[in-house]
Amino acid sequence: MKKTIIIIVLALLALFLLAASWVISSRNSLINQDEAVNLQWSEIDTQLQRRSDLIPNLVNTVKGYAAHESEIFTAVADARSKLIGASTPAEKAGAETAVSSALSRLLAIAENYPQLKADSSFVRLQDELAGTENRIAVARGRYNGAVKNFNAAIRMFPGSLFAPGLGFSPAEYYEPPAGRAALEQAPEVSF
To answer: How far apart are CA 139 and CA 146, in angstroms?
Structure first.
C-alpha cells in the first residue's frame, strides 16, 4: 500500500513538473518571438536613419549644380522630417514612400546635369543610397517574417492561452500605405 502511494505521488509530481515546464516553455517562446519582432523593427529604424543621414549630403551635392531647383530640395527636406518623426510601422511606411518619391525626383533632376553625374561624391552618395535601399528592403522582409511568426504564435494553441495574460496583441506588418500598387507605380517627375 505504501509503495502504491509513493508511486502515485511521484507520478503526480512528474505530471506537475511536465506541465510546469510546458507552461514556462510556451511563455518564453512568446517572449522570444516578441523580442524578435522588436529586433527586426530596430533594424528597419537603423536603415531608415542611415538613409536619412545620407540625404542632406546628397541634397547639398545636387544643390551645388542645380541651385534653382529649390522646390525639390524642400520636398526632400519635408519628407525626411516626416520620416524622422514617424514612430509606428504605418507612419514609417507612409513617410518612407514620401522620401522615396522625393529622392526619385531628386535623382531625376541630376540626369539633367552631366557634370553632376560625373562628380565622384555624387556617384558615391548615389551608390550608398542604393545599398541602403537594398538594406531597407531586406530589413522590411525580415521584420514582416518575424511579425508573421509572432502573430501566428499568439493565435495558435498554446500561445493563445498565454498571450492575453502577457499583454501581447498582433504586431503590425510594415506595408506601404496604399498597398503594393503604390510600390509598383513609378513616381511622376515633371519639370
So the answer is: 10
Burial state string for 86-99 with b = 16 or more CB within 10 A and e = fewer than 16: beebeebbbbbbbb
The pLDDT, as a whole number, for residue 185 is 53
Predicted confidence (pLDDT) per residue in 176-186, tens digit: 766 545 445 54
Structure confidence by residue, pLDDT tens digits, 40-72 = 999 999 999 999 998 888 888 888 777 767 788
Please check whether residue 106 is in contact with residue 72, taking contact to mean a CB–CB distance below 8 angstroms. yes
Chain centroid offset of residue 71 CA: 29
Which DSSP symbol is given to 67?
A: T
Q: What is the tally of helices (H) and strands (E) in the chain?
A: 7, 0
Domains of the chain: 40-184 (1.20.1440.20)
